[in-house]
């Protein structure tokens, strides 16, 4: 018992130390990010405040090759020359959030005072570009665009660029909405599924460049060598494996409007099954509707990520006191109904109910022809192959 207590104490102390260390790193980064700055400094002066490693990150961002052997002064001179030249290409992949920040700085003659949280940005992203620099002057937090970059931006800032930025923003939002339903999409799927929703002018290489740039700074998307995933997907490879295990199952189609709606970070499909579960929790526990909704929303996320019914129930019991058979049965029933009505990542955006209806419709269609698929009409047993096409037993898959 003493050993357990000591171990628990050590873990708690370690967690506390880790939190303090993380906070210390954040404070140091924040202090450097908003240190005193001379807004009128030359481009080379702003670059000179950075370390050689930070300058190398900027060189890598712009894919400037053959410069690894340069000293710091030479690297600064190279970046000072090449960034304005390459800026137009980078602007063509940006979304409205990034464009608005640059436009604000340009309209201010190369600098703009920031208003938080309206001007919230991923400053790590901007720090890696060398396009703008952050700091404080006269107790105001500023973003500064050096003169050569400002001139290049003004030349590129045309009606055509603004239309491209609007298009890019829509592409990103459509993709984020689809990732809400699919969890992850490899690059081939991005071409095949996202492009048709983006209009006839969409090109594969343009779409890919826009999405990869977005993933550098958007907290809702993560890119890897295989494709893009929603950032809250705990194991993208597991979801991809679920997709590969169902080669005969097509990704559920969604309209552009549906995808754009699902791109909202607060989006949750609140169907009748969802609302009924919320009503049950509110009626049986001393909680507000908002609190009950939050619990059911967490259940949906667990189900999306592949938790079986038993795992979802176990997670729920950690939050709720279930001391009556009536409550346990009610929660289990509502959770099972929610499980079957929730679109799941490994099911390519389908819900188990949708797959069941499709199977019944297929069986009915077969009954109208010359052949009758008796197996398709029977009830699926727990040890039968799952009808979703995964190759697993029903009890280990959709019926888990």
From TrEMBL:
Coiled coil: none
Record region (Disordered): 373-400
InterPro entries xrefs: SEC_C_motif (IPR004027)
Identification of the protein by name: Zinc chelation protein SecC
Organism from which the protein derives: Paenibacillus flagellatus
